[in-house]
Amino acid sequence: MFSPRGPSLRELMVQALSSVERGYDLLAPTFDHTPFRTPDVILDATADALRPLGPFGRGLDVCCGTGAAMRVLTPLCREATTGVDFSAGMLARARAAHPDAGWVQADVRALPFAGAFDLAVSFGALGHFLPAERLALFSEVHRALRPGGLFAFPIGAPPPVTSARYWALLGFDAVMRVRNAVWRPPFVMYYGTCPLSAVRDDLEAAGFSVTTVPLTALGRREDGGPRCRLVLARRT
């Protein structure tokens, strides 16, 4: 599937019927050759938007996967960079690709840090948390940052209801809800559960002040709005 070096259809099916942690352990060797890995164009657009706000001290990648966000953190941070994820398989790939960074296995809803970082980023992870879990996640990131620290992540605009993408994502979420209703362990991954308004409310409830900037390099929608915004949540 996806490319000659990507996972097979059978491997994807086994992964989808596993828990989130086990599924990513299984997918880790081929993850970078799938569409699930954040594209470099999004990473670069994020780095460009953050550069005028830096440089930063210590950096943290929340739900780091195979470490793709080091492309953003390493040039922006003058001190150590760290990635945290609960998948040992993904961390092994990250450690091999970026041996100079620190890698920590932990549930991000209980981060083993307090007041340690100046910049935290996250890419493509929010869909792995149910709406009721989001505040706990944001509160842990808030605790991990130093006063004045910044939590940044891109969030896409919803596709138009008339687009094929809208119905594809809606269909994916519906399939996942059915799968989780009839199969254990659950695999939490939804595309429609984190609209910007709800994410902003939870960030503010966790103690952040929130602004956004358009990532214009990623294009605009037909209505003129940006396809993607970078959320900038500051620990006040």
UniProtKB/TrEMBL annotation:
Pfam families: Methyltransf_25. One of its GO terms (molecular function) is methyltransferase activity. Residues 60-149 form the Methyltransferase domain. It comes from the Bacteria. GO terms for biological process: methylation. Keywords: Methyltransferase, Transferase. This is Methyltransferase domain-containing protein.
